[in-house]
Amino acid sequence: xxxxxxxxxxxxxxxxxxxxxxxxxxxxxxxxxxxxxxxxxxxxxxxxxxxxxxxxxxxxxxxxxxxxxxxxxxxxxxxxxxxxxxxxxxxxxxxxxxxxxxxxxxxxxxxxxxxxxxxxxxxxxxxxxxxxxxxxxxxxxxxxxxxxxxxxxxxxxxxxxxxxxxxxxxxxxxxxxxxxxxxxxxxxxxxxxxxxxxxxxxxxxxxxxxxxxxxxxxxxxxxxxxxxxxxxxxxxxxxxxxxxxxxxxxxxxxxxxxxxxxxxxxxxxxxxxxxxxxxxxxxxxxxxxxxxxxxxxxxxxxxxxxxxxxxxxxxx
Length: 316
Prior knowledge:
- The chain is α+β, with helices and mostly antiparallel strands.
- The protein has helices at 5-10, 15-22, 34-39, 54-67, 101-109, 175-183, 188-191, 264-267, 274-292, 298-305, and strands at 26-27, 30-31, 50-51, 69-75, 80-97, 123-124, 158-164, 202-213, 225-231, 238-239, 250-251, 256-260, 308-310, 313-315.
- Helix content is 28%, strand content 23%.
- Helix 4 crosses helix 6 (175-183).
C-alpha cells in the first residue's frame, strides 16, 4: 500500500470529489474601501466588500499550467493510491460587466484603479437578457431553479470579451499562456474586479490527463478528461474557510461539469447513487447555463456527444 492510501482511508471522499477539490482555485481576496463599497452596483454585489481581480484568478492557474495539478486517486481493486496530474486549458469564457467601458474608464481616472480598455472590444449585450438559473447549494446549480432578474435588472450586462476553443487538445496552449495572449489586446482581463462583473460572467476549463505517480503497477485506467464551469462575478462567490496556513480566500468551486472517458468504477463510489446524482446535477447545470445564455460550447457538445449516461455512472 502506498503512503497516500492512509489519507484516502481516513477520508470518505470519492475520487471525483477529490478531483473537484484539487482543481478548485482559492483566490486571494481583497477588501473594498468604504467609498468604493458605496459606489459598487448593489444589484450584483451581494457579498459585501470581498472581491478579487481577474489577475488574482489567473495567478491560481500559473503553476498548474506549468506543472499540472495533482488529484489523489484511490484504486480499491489494487489497494493502491496514485496522484493523477492534469493540465488546464481555457475552453470558453464570457466576460460581462455591470457598467459600460466609458463608465469604468471614468472611475479609473478618479483613482480607483488603472485600466486601459479597448473600446472596440465592448458591445452592449442587453438584448440577450435571460433568466440566469442558479441555486447555491453545496457548490452546485439546480437545473430547474432560477435566479430571476427583475425588470430593472433584465440584462446580462456589457459584453467585454468572449472566447471558445475549437482546436484539438493536442494543439492547445496552456491556460496561463492563453490568458497572457488575450490580455495583450484586452487589458481588462487583467484589471477587472469580480465586483465589476455581471452574474452572467463565466469560464470553462478543460482538464486533460498528463501523467500519474507512480507510473507502474496500476491495472486500472485512471485517465479521464473533464470540463469544469465557474462563475466569475462576486454575486456567486464563496469565501473559503481558514486554511491550515492561516490564509483565506475566495473559493471558485465548479457549478457545472462534463466528463469524457471516465470509468465510473474508478471515479465514483459505486455503493451509493450520491456521486452519480451529483454528476447528473453538475452536467445538467452546465447544460442549463449554456442554453439560457444561448451559447454553443464546442467542448461541452463534444464531451456530451461522446458519453453515455447510464444509471450507475458515466460510460463510454
